[in-house]
Specification:
By secondary structure, the chain is α/β, with parallel strands linked by helices. About 35% of the residues lie in helices and about 30% in strands.
Length: about 325
Amino acid sequence: MQPVAWGIVSTAKIGREKVIPALQAGRLTRVVAIASRDLAAAKAVAAKLGIPRAYGTYEELLADPEIEAVYNPLPNHLHVPVSIQAAEAGKHVLCEKPIALTAEEARSLIAVRDRTGVRIQEAFMVRHHPQWRRARDLVREGRIGRLRAIQAFFSYSNVDPVNIRNKADIGGGGIYDIGCYPVVTARFLFGAEPTRVVALIERDPATKVDRLTSAILDFPEGQATFTCSTQLIPYQRVQILGTAGRIEVRVPFNAAPAEPSRIFVDAEGALGDISAKPEEFPMVNQYTLQGDAFSEGIRTGKPAEFPLEDSVRNMRVIDALFRSGKSARWEAL
């Protein structure tokens, strides 16, 4: 199976530091070009990462006949328009999360996908990591009894007013950036959609972005709660609790590619975690796994495991969280 030729639109930090090196290490991924509206920036990143070609516009990259797939890590408000532009140029698209700013925007991509015949997918790399696959398998096998509750926490500290994550008018804020992870993993584990949500959202008085959110997602079989913040000490942890056991994911979202990952399975519930048994997974790069899975789908034509319809459902939850933050009440999906 021949590797897929990839182009990168934007010199965004996540691309430079995480995704591009991961794609370059993949079995089925080959990065051949990068584009930026600043040609000098594109050339600098291309030289540093060994990318053959650099372009000063996205249009030039999309016109490159060798490129088969595009990775889009642009600011959130550009996810939909540039992904549409790439699809119209005949390129498959792996777009960073959140794939859109609303469910309605996300739905617009389905029509483009169906019309052009290309693949468009949201880049939630965690769903490809073996620790999350194992956690879901344990839940499905009944190892913790019936899944009833999920608790998640995800935070970092970024108070830079010029950082794109702190610009409300282009899709900044904590829910879009990191709150989407507890949402998508809760849906992943429950294998269902919440029926209603409630959220308490605190906004930065200067930048107006959501900087601290606590939320409850009410699923048919249980509840998922999470807190996310962009102005707290960096921390992340997920607890998955059932009627007969518990799973703890210690580094759920930013698992280090150069270290083994571990989850802890506790079927006894002794205080102090002393009865929790670790399960360890070999070193993997979840971004590499994501890129290979997307490329394999291109080559084989196999239906996407997480199609755009799933992205629309995830955005419906996020839409409802924002509505609840304004209404101060439960919001139905």
